[in-house]
Amino acid sequence: MGPSNGMGTTGLVLGIVSAVGFCLWPVAIIVGVLAVIFGGIGRGKARRGEATNGGQALAGIICGAAGMALGVAMFVLVLVAPGLR
């Protein structure tokens, strides 16, 4: 049976979607959390030898975290900052 690379790939795709779509901040935050979760599962599978794409899973974690951070920054910029004037 071949490697089980689905979780790492899913984490990477969700991380990219989160980082690119940060203007839709609620979606970016939710998808970023999912990217970190799937990326973490994918990293675990790669460490156990069940998958061969540990780098993709790590990239998914990083992109998901960046997407979450950008989403939170957009939330602050759009909803919180105008009330500070």
Report the portion of residues in β strands: under 5%
Q: Count of helices?
A: 3
Low-confidence stretches: none
Order of helices and strands: HHH
Q: Roughly what is the average pLDDT, rounded to an integer?
A: 94
Helix content: over 70%
The biggest sheet, with number of strands, parallel, antiparallel or mixed sense and barrel status, is: none
> Using DSSP, what is the number of strands?
0
Class computed from helices, strands and strand pairing: mainly alpha
Terminal-residue CA separation: 61 Å
* Rg measurement, Å: 15 Å
3D shape: rod-shaped
Short description:
The protein is mainly α. It has helices spanning 6-20, 25-48, 54-80.
List the helices and strands and how they pair.
Layout: H1 6-20, H2 25-48, H3 54-80
Helix pairs in contact: 1-2, 1-3, 2-3
Overview of this structure, please?
- The chain has a domain at 29-77.
- It contains three helices and no strands.
- It has helices spanning 6-20, 25-48, 54-80.
- Helix 1 (6-20) packs parallel to helix 3 (54-80) and helix 2 (25-48) runs antiparallel to helix 3 (54-80).
- The termini are far apart.
- The model has no long low-confidence stretch (mean pLDDT 94).
Search tags:
85 residues, mainly alpha, rod-shaped
